[in-house]
């Protein structure tokens, strides 16, 4: 072979089913398929260079592969080969033909039929929780759809976006993303399909209402990509927990309530402390932690002002928060494109947390444990396109819970795309047209295909940007928690975490020269006040950590106060 296939992320295609799997490999030679005898057939092929990756006998229980299905130190996607081997040994007297000539099929182009016009829902006006990240997603989707000669109709009331530029969508409606206005556009434009997953929670909520009201069925509009039923599964906490239990995965103990009395009953049953949040909410709006009934009543009153239902979870504050960006196509090919870890422990909204990619504190075992669970869950839910899955991981064991699955492009998706170079929104739009991952070319290399998992030899750090100093002292709490308060974020890339976080801090604060900078309000704190700042996270806690190191605090002491995982 010219280069050989080496690494943990080599895609191979099972020629019996056209399914693509990610495999660990380390070889420089391959079988020449032209030399196989008539009873032997190719079993696997590399999706990138099309070299042979396995052979199988036509009717005897013999097969061999050129990768590592035992996955020691790599993905476990092909563990089924061991079951297949044992099954054939047990049933050795009953040989079946394993590969038929007619099972070979053209996998270079599988696409949707009769989709000529698509309605794309944007994210609506700018607010905390929906801003530039969904402009990025929508712009990438428009680009992908136009490549497939699809007429794109966009609804987005925000004129200050790239996606509403004159050279993007074919038709743009500067209207609110609400069922009433979207219905009028559907009536006028008569699109063949609608895309819900590129406009954040606003677009998802609107799409669910359109389905419930029978508008989509009435006008014959197909929901492209992830079905509405899957979206509803991920949004309804009880249904979500039941679906995960079907594949032996769990969420934190939780329940829903529709009034304050119900909420008190649920909290008493689960046990304090609890996390309360609004259902179908944007950016964690109306959420928070309650240590007792008094705090619960105050939180619930605020949450019910924005929603008819609240979700009450057992608090896992202090556990590590890890997330994976997962992509799945109509043919059940499934990959994890990026793994990210929150610098802060669970309890702080991802939008308000420092995020590091790839994760720095996970062992190889933990990484692949969560990856396998993510792929299993996404397949079971039936996501088509891109989604984000968030975990709470016990820092002292392998125990973990699924926090949530966002069945849409999210803030993290935009970060993951830029961090890895993998255009998640672009690929998700193609998958919504029923194309498959192996059929989509890698837009960077032009030679490989989209069914691969990027491998990073650098570190990416995202730090949020807050504007709380604009408010008078005492008008707004500077503490951060489960409800998002940041209004922007910066991303820095470097070979090492230390350099990347210093770069990001310099970008987010003009006076900061990197990690080690301590503002005057932190310098003025005595030891007791500094400890309080470390225990209660705020927009300047990272500077309090720097000050603590300078004052001689040990790593163990800081871990005890902040619950930030040491590494």
Keywords for this entry:
single chain; 567 residues; alpha+beta; 7-stranded antiparallel sheet; globular
Q: How would you describe the overall organization of this protein?
A:
The chain is an alpha+beta fold and 567 residues long. The protein is globular, with a radius of gyration of 25 Å. It starts with a strand and ends in a 5-residue tail after the last helix. The relative contact order is 0.10. About 3% of the residues have low confidence.
Total number of beta strands: 21
* End-to-end C-alpha gap: 40 Å
Secondary-structure class: alpha+beta
Return the average pLDDT rounded to an integer. 87
Radius of gyration: 25 Å
Strand content: 15-25%
Q: Enumerate the spans where pLDDT stays under 50 for 5 or more consecutive residues.
A: 96-111
Brief characterization of the structure:
Helix content is 31%, strand content 21%.
Summarize the helices and strands and which ones pair or pack.
Layout: E1 5-14, E2 20-27, E3 40-46, E4 52-57, E5 63-65, H1 80-90, E6 117-121, H2 132-147, E7 151-155, E8 171-173, H3 179-189, E9 193-195, H4 200-212, H5 215-218, E10 222-223, H6 228-235, H7 237-245, E11 254-257, H8 260-270, E12 274-278, E13 288-290, H9 293-303, E14 310-314, E15 320-328, E16 334-342, E17 355-357, H10 364-381, E18 385-393, E19 400-406, H11 411-420, H12 424-432, E20 459-465, E21 488-494, H13 497-508, H14 520-523, H15 527-535, H16 541-550, H17 555-562
Parallel strand pairs: 6-7, 6-9, 7-8, 9-10
Antiparallel strand pairs: 1-2, 1-3, 3-4, 4-5, 11-14, 12-13, 12-14, 15-16, 15-18, 16-17, 17-20, 18-19, 20-21
């Amino acid at each position: 072979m010219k280069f050989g296939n080496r690494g943990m992320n080599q895609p191979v295609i099972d020629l019996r089913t056209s399914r693509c799997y990610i495999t660990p490999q380390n070889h420089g030679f391959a079988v020449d398929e032209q030399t196989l005898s008539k009873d032997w057939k190719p079993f696997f092929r590399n999706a990138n260079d099309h070299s042979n990756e396995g052979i199988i006998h036509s009717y005897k229980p013999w097969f061999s592969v050129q990768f590592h299905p035992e996955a020691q130190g790599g993905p476990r996607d092909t563990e089924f080969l061991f079951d297949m081997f044992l099954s054939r040994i047990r049933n050795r007297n009953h040989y079946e033909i394993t590969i038929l000539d007619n099972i070979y099929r053209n996998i270079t182009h599988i696409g949707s039929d009769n989709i000529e016009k698509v309605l794309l829902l944007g994210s609506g006006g700018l607010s905390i929780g929906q801003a530039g990240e969904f402009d990025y997603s929508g712009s990438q989707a428009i680009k992908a759809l136009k490549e497939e000669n699809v007429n794109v109709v966009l609804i987005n009331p925000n004129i200050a976006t790239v996606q509403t530029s004159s050279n993007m969508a074919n038709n743009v409606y500067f209207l609110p993303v609400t069922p009433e206005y979207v219905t009028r556009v559907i009536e006028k434009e008569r699109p063949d399909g609608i895309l819900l997953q590129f406009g954040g929670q606003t677009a998802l909520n609107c799409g669910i209402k359109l389905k419930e009201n029978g508008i989509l069925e009435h006008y014959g509009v197909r929901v492209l990509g992830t079905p509405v039923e899957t979206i509803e599964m991920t949004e309804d906490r009880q249904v979500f927990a039941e679906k995960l239990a079907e594949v032996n995965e769990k969420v934190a103990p939780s329940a829903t309530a529709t009034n304050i009395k119900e909420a008190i009953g649920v909290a008493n049953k689960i046990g304090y402390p609890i996390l309360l949040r609004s259902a179908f909410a944007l950016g964690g709006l109306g959420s928070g932690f309650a240590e007792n009934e008094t705090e619960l009543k105050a939180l619930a009153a605020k949450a019910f002002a924005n929603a008819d239902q609240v979700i009450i979870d057992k608090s896992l504050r202090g556990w590590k928060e890890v997330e994976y960006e997962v992509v799945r196509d109509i043919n059940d090919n499934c990959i994890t494109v990026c793994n990210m870890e929150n610098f802060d422990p669970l309890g702080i909204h991802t939008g308000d947390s420092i995020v590091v990619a790839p994760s720095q504190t996970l062992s190889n075992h933990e990484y692949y444990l969560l990856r396998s669970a993510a792929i299993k869950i996404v397949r079971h839910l039936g996501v088509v396109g891109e989604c984000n899955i968030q975990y709470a991981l016990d820092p002292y064991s392998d125990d973990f819970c699924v926090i949530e699955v966002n069945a849409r492009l999210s803030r993290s998706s935009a970060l993951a795309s830029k961090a890895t170079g993998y255009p998640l929104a672009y690929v998700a739009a193609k998958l919504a047209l029923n194309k498959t991952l192996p059929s989509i070319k890698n837009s960077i290399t032009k030679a490989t295909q989209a069914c691969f998992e990027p491998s990073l030899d650098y570190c990416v750090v995202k730090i949020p940007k807050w504007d709380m100093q604009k408010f008078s002292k005492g008008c707004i709490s500077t503490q951060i928690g489960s409800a998002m308060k940041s209004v922007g974020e910066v991303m820095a890339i470097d070979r090492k975490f230390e350099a990347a976080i210093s770069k990001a801090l310099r970008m987010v604060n003009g006076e900061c020269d990197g990690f080690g900078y301590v503002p005057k309000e932190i310098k003025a704190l005595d030891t007791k006040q500094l400890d309080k700042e470390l225990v209660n996270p705020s927009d300047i806690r990272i500077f309090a950590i720097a000050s603590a190191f300078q004052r001689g605090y040990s790593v163990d002491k800081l871990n005890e106060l902040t619950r930030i995982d040491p590494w």
